[in-house]
Amino acid sequence: MFQLLEEASRSNAIDLALGIPGAPVTSPALIDAAGQALRGGRNQYEVLAGNPELRRWIADTLPAPTDPESELTITVGATEALGVAVLSLIDPGDEVVIFEPYYENFVNTVVLAGGVPRFVRTHPPTWRYDPAQLRSAFNPATRAIIVSTPNNPTGHMLGATEWAEIAELCERWNVVAVSDEIYGGYTFTERHISVVEVPALRERSMLVGSLSKSHAVSGWRLGYLRAAAHLTAAARQVHATLCGGAAAPLQAAVAAAAALDPAVAGPTDDLRAQRDRVLSLFNAAGFRCLAPDGGCYVMAGIPDPADEDSDSLARRLVRQAGILVAPGSLFYADTAAGSHHVRVAFNRTMGFLDEAGKRLAAFHDPPRDP
C-alpha cells in the first residue's frame, strides 16, 4: 500500500482509499475553542485520565451509564485506545478472535502484544459470520475478541442476534470484548447497538471511540476508552506508560465547545448522500456495490475478478484514472481472499466526489500491464 500511496501522490490522484475526513467540515466552534485554549495557557500536561469536563461530556453521550471518573479515559486517538486495551488484556500466547476482513491495526496490535490472532471470516454480500465458525474459534486460550461496528472495511453493523451470540461465548470462556465503534455516528439502516448496551458485556467490554471521523479532527488525535472500573484501572497503567496523556489544549477545546453548544456532540453530516453518490458512480463503472449499514466505506466487488485482482486494479485506477482506492488484500491474513474487492471511502465533499465521478467515467480497460 505504501508504494501505491507514493504513486498516487506523484500523479495527484484523488484519494478514495484512506478514511481521512473531507466531510463533515470541522466545526468552526472547535477551531475557535482550540485557539482560545492555547492562548489561555492550557499548554501543559492534563490529568492522566483526561480532561474531567471532556470525560463527563463523553460519558453523557454514551448509550449506557458510565462513570467518567473510573470508567472513561481520554486517549491519543482510537489507535492508542485500541493499543491500551489489547496491551492491558493480552499476555504472550493469548489468543484474540478477529473478524475478517479487518482493520489492519487490529492484527498489528495483537501481534505487538505477543498475542495470536484467530480469524473468523465474514462473507459478502451480507458480511455476516458463520456462528459455528465463531464458536470453534473460542477455546481456553482465548482472552479477547475484537469487533468493529459499523465495520471497517465492510460497513456491516452487529445486530442484536450477533451481539447475543458474542456475549454468550464471552461469558462461557471468560473473554473480554473490545469494540471499535468510531463510526457509530454514521448509520443508514438499523440503529447502531453499542457493546455497552449488551447487559452481559457491560462489565467485560472495552469500548474504543474517537472524534476523528465524526468531528473531522483526525489530526487532533482525541479518542477514548470506556471500560468497567477494574479494566480501566489496568488500562490507565498502560496509558501512562505509552504516552502520559492526550493534548491538553485540544481536550479543553472540545469540552468548552460542547458546553456552549450541545449540537457539537454529534456529526454535522450524516454522509448518506455521499454514500449513495459513491454507490451510483462505482456501480455504473461495473463494480458490484451494496449499500453499507454504516460507517464511511463501501467494499466494492471489482468488475472482472476472473481477469484481474484488487491490487492490479488499484494500480490501474491510479495510473489511468487518477483515483486511489484500497485493495481488498489489505484486510485479510490470506491476501488472496481479498482479491475480488476494493475499499472506497465516501466521507468526502460532494464536489470531491463529482470530480472522482468524471475520472471514473473516463476510465477504460486498456491492455494489461506486462
Descriptive account of the structure:
The radius of gyration is 21 Å and the shape is globular. The strands form three sheets. An eight-stranded mixed β-sheet has the order 2-9-8-7-6-3-4-5, sandwiched between helices. The protein has helices at residues 2-10, 28-39, 52-61, 77-89, 104-112, 131-137, 160-173, 229-242, 248-260, 272-284, 310-321, 350-361; strands at 14-15, 72-76, 95-100, 116-123, 128-129, 142-148, 176-180, 205-210, 222-227, 297-301, 323-324, 326-327, 341-345. The two termini are 20 Å apart. Helix content is 37%, strand content 16%. Helix 3 crosses helix 9, helix 4 (77-89) packs across helix 5 and helix 4 (77-89) crosses helix 8 (229-242). Strand 4 (116-123) and strand 5 form a beta hairpin. The chain contains twelve helices and 13 strands. The chain folds into two domains: 2-23 and 269-361, Aspartate Aminotransferase, domain 1; 28-264, 3-Layer(aba) Sandwich (Aspartate Aminotransferase, domain 2). By secondary structure, the chain is an alpha/beta fold. The longest helix is centred in the middle third of the chain and has 14 residues, at 160-173. The mean pLDDT is 93.
Please report the first level of CATH classification, the CATH class of the largest domain.
Answer: Alpha Beta
Radius of gyration: 21 Å
Order of helices and strands: HEHHEHEHEEHEHEEEHHHEHEEEH
Trace the largest sheet across and list its strands: 2-9-8-7-6-3-4-5
Helical percentage? 25-40%
Shape: globular
The count of domains is 2
Note poorly predicted spans.
none
Distance between the termini: 20 Å
Any idea what the CATH superfamily of the largest domain is called?
Answer: Type I PLP-dependent aspartate aminotransferase-like (Major domain)
- Class derived from helix and strand content: alpha/beta
Q: So, CATH architecture of the largest domain?
A: 3-Layer(aba) Sandwich
Mean pLDDT: 93
Number of strands: 13
Kindly identify the CATH topology of the largest domain.
Aspartate Aminotransferase, domain 2
Number of helices: 12
